[in-house]
Amino acid sequence: RIEDLLRRDPVQTDTAQVTALLKGRRVLVTGAGGSIGSELCRQIARCRPESLVLLGHGENSIFCIANELRAAHPRLRLASVIADVRDAPRLSAVFGEHRPEIVFHAAAHKHVPLMEANIPDAITNNVEGTLHVVQAAEAAECEQLVLISSDKAVNPTSIMGVTKRIAERIVQEAALRTGRKFVAVRFGNVLGSRGSVVPLFQEQIARGGPVTITHAEMKRYFMTIPEAVQLVLQAAALGEGGEVFILDMGEPVLILDLARDLIALSGLQEGRDIDITFTGLRPGEKLFEELFRPDEEYARTRHERVFCCASCAPGDGPSLRRAVAMLVRHARQGDLGQAVAMLESLVPEYCRTPAAIASEEGDTQAGPRQEPGP
User: Cα(237)–Cα(231) distance, rounded to whole angstroms?
Assistant: First the structure.
């Protein structure tokens, strides 16, 4: 079982409180076809909402989760919407038609090295897309919104992390300005999610190895898909506006130990059946992640395994929106130097890794950027 890799007991959340929140409500999920978004939709459907809107950019994934939910919940009012969160007029029309009361924003680009190689799309999807979702939710008088963020947003060293931190600021600013229950949730690495390390290791083991790890000291916080989704739902039930919620995930796990556990659980032996090799840190990666910023005061919530950072003023709203607009303009124009400078201005603690700088300098000298390997 995937839970065997956690090295701790899975966290259980207050399902009664979540059911009371969602029952009879109009709910919309962005990124509904993804591994997190689809499980989110499954758990929401069990709470008997009045309606559920599945919004996603990939038609096949939306088609699959919609068919699954229709079979499991034939009485549920379900709408399948193919839309890109970067398309503001389309989002406005969708929100205007369905008038969601609660929004879960799971649509995002999440792969760290891939986003280092595709900075414009990381900015337009993770930052501009979040801004559009928040604006559409405000215009539709949505009561609650939960942004799915990442522990990589804390003292970020990657494009993915810094864009997620700006997304958090956008949500916090809207919550403080409007008084609505708009909050964020920071995930650790989600075991078994699409594109995550466990499926990659499983593929490498199935091929006979080697299992590749970037660095022997690499550590990450881990959670299962059900834990991640329950945390999102719990945040919706607990949030008052502007907070960031984090699951108590225990101690971070060495990726090397995770690989060894997977090899052993596959009935194999490291060194005899499968080798482990080290490939070096990739652009944007750091050895360990953090859950809280130094200026964030955090405490446990009513749920003993869920932490909450009280809302902190994320800066002047109009200046934030102007800076975000300039950032998006640079990204759309392909001006990467100015875009990165704007990221550094918006998130002063953002620090690019030597591998990312070397990769960019190498690309400048060597021509087209190569897609990163596993």
Answer: 10
